[in-house]
Amino acid sequence: MKIHAVDVERHFGRGAKRVDALGPLDLDIRTGEFCCIVGPSGCGKSTFLRIVAGLVKPTAGRVEIAARSAHPAAMVFQDYGISPWKSVLANVRFGLDIQGVPRKEADARARDWLKRLKLADFADAYPAALSGGMRQRVSIARALAVEPEILLMDEPFAALDAQLRTILQDELLEICQADRRTVLFVTHSLEEALLLGDRVLVMSSRPGRVIAERVPPFPRPRTGAVRTSPEFAEMQGELWALLRGEVETAAESAGAQK
Q1: To bridge 110 with a disulfide, which of 18, 67, 81, 92 should be the other Cys (CB 3.0-4.6 Å)?
Q2: What whole-number distance in Å separates Cα of residue 249 and Cα of residue 103?
Q3: Whole domain around residue 116: which residue ranges?
Q4: Position 79 in a domain
Q5: CA atoms of 161 and 133, how far apart (whole Å)
């Protein structure tokens, strides 16, 4: 297993203001697996991702990562997380600079990922000149340039319009099928999870726990054409039936706290 989580919990606040956000959660992610996590808002999906990344410590339990390096994971955020004062090339090269990779090699690796993500002509541009989709491509290129063992993606396409989201889903599918690195992908979109994932995990309302898992029956290499298959629609409906009650519970809880 690449990621092994045991009895992971995360609480925020204390006393009457304590919020039980996550767990207990047990989860194993295999090496090379693209695992998607879906669940209602506030169920701890993103919190778990940050625990795996080492950005947040669990309140209880542990996460073990079978890593070859000291910093095995790279993360892609919903809000891009790129530096507006750096050029596109400098943004993509940033992680390599931190690792001390020689500039010539770092530039070559960064430009290679810019080419793969259709950004080669924008290497000298700045984020303000880019569309939202292009900024997210920069963020993905930056994460992949450091060649992480684990790619963590926190709703990376949520802020994009439907057409652009479809295009980037297909691009990510192609890249990850060629690469086969371990990916943990958080999304609200059942369609996105079924298209991209080797396995889809469904989480409960807060505190989040895994209540179901499904394996999309679509062989790889896979293309966006699977979206139109009867099996895709059937599994999407099945997942929504599992998730709907949890979403309603989360909405009722949020309303009661106002």
Answers
A1: 92
A2: 52
A3: 85-147
A4: no
A5: 9
